[in-house]
Automatic annotation (TrEMBL):
Species of origin: Anoxybacteroides amylolyticum
Obligatory cofactor(s): FAD
Pathway where it operates: Amino-acid degradation; L-proline degradation into L-glutamate; L-glutamate from L-proline: step 1/2
GO molecular function ontology, one term from the record: nucleotide binding
EC number annotated for this UniProt entry: 1.5.5.2
Highest classification ranks of the organism: Bacteria, Bacillati, Bacillota, Bacilli, Bacillales
Annotated binding of FAD, by residue: M133, Q161, K185, G186, A187, K199, T224, H225
Protein name: proline dehydrogenase
Length: 305
């Protein structure tokens, strides 16, 4: 049943008509639990209050299905606005973004132009930028772009997904770039040809790549809400004397906030991924797919609004 729900929400997340409708009608159905607001001003309030609790942030301007140059340029402008705001308001926040929002499905040239604009502004404001990883069909392109950008900028990192068979060799392949990588389980629906179908295999591979990347001496963001993985990381760094400055934990805004604060109190860097913007629908559906138990919460929200 859980798998059916998961597939259903992932299917809904890709629906362009619902995405457009959601944009027009504003944050609904309890989405505000996971999305910081529709404007940068609302996001600033959320970031500031997280910073006050000892949590650091990576902020993300939401955008899905960008299929023309104008929209991609506008998405990049929103990222630049967010970076300048972080600098001006002295927030402890990085930025996350998606290659498709920057025009990946249109042309490489467009993505590179937008990324260089963003990374120049980020460098001037001392802000680090992480390129989120999307579905498998964009994985190689994203890694190629990351490699190119990493030769030009220090303030850029990307994400690798434990559910993909290829990730172990990507860790090895990227080793020489000394990348700051966020490691995650993976949020998209992928075929058995490219991804482990069983959760237990994903979890094992997650542990394996965390160990590989840390022992390669590279900065590792362990992005998960899973206590077993968090405990594994804590034990590993203790065993190998890896300092707290070489890794951090990351979680999504609205998920396990007490655990986030607890990890920060224990002295770990705890970064919260804070999405904002009018294009909240696809992101929200992927969060429901991860944890169908959240649906009960959403149904309550539907009747309250
Ligand atoms: P999993 O979903 O297996 O959950 C493990 C346990 O965590 C659960 O059993 C439960 O105990 C607890 N838990 C999970 N959700 C909960 C909730 N809502 N409330 C209470 N407890 C909960 N993916 C991707 O493909 N590309 C990307 O770029 C990113 N980026 C990213 C950034 C950050 C900061 C995070 C945290 C995650 C991502 N992801 C991602 C998403 C990631 O791939 C994955 O889908 C989710 O993190 C869910 O997987 P978990 O590791 O949390 O474990």
């Amino acid at each position: 049943m859980e798998q059916v729900m998961r597939d259903f929400f992932l299917f809904l997340s890709k629906n362009k008509t619902l995405t457009k409708l959601a944009k027009q009608y504003g944050l609904r159905f309890g989405a505000s639990r996971f999305v910081a607001g529709e404007t940068i001003g609302q996001a600033v309030e959320v970031i500031r209050s997280l910073n006050q609790k000892g949590l650091v942030v990576t902020v993300d301007y939401l955008g899905e299905f960008v299929d023309n140059e104008k929209e991609a340029n506008e998405m990049a402008n929103h990222c630049i606005e967010a970076i300048e705001t972080i600098g001006r308001e002295q927030l402890n926040s990085q930025l996350s973004l998606k290659m498709t929002s920057m025009g990946l499905d249109i042309s490489n040239e467009l993505v590179m132009r937008n990324m260089r604009r963003i990374l120049d502004t980020a460098k001037a404001n001392d802000v680090f930028v992480t390129i989120d990883m999307e579905d498998y069909s964009r994985c190689q392109k994203t890694i190629d772009i990351f490699k190119q950008l990493k030769t030009e900028y220090d303030n850029v990192g990307t994400v690798l997904q434990a559910y993909l068979y290829r990730t172990e060799s990507d860790i090895e392949d990227l080793k020489e770039y000394h990348p700051n990588l966020r490691l995650v389980k993976g949020a998209y629906k992928e075929s058995e040809e490219v991804a482990f179908p069983e959760k237990k295999d994903v979890d094992e591979n997650f542990k394996k790549i965390i160990k590989m990347h840390l022992l390669n001496g590279n900065y590792t963001a362990v992005a998960t809400h899973d206590d077993a993985i968090i405990e594994y990381t804590k034990q590993l760094v203790k065993e190998y004397n890896i300092p707290n400055t070489q890794f951090e934990f990351q979680m999504l805004y609205g998920i396990r906030p007490e655990r986030q604060e607890q990890l920060a109190r224990e002295g770990y860097t705890m970064r919260v991924y804070v999405p904002y913007g009018t294009d909240w629908y696809g992101y929200f559906m992927r969060r429901l797919a991860e944890r169908p138990a959240n649906v009960a919460f959403v149904l309550k929200g539907m009747f309250r609004k």
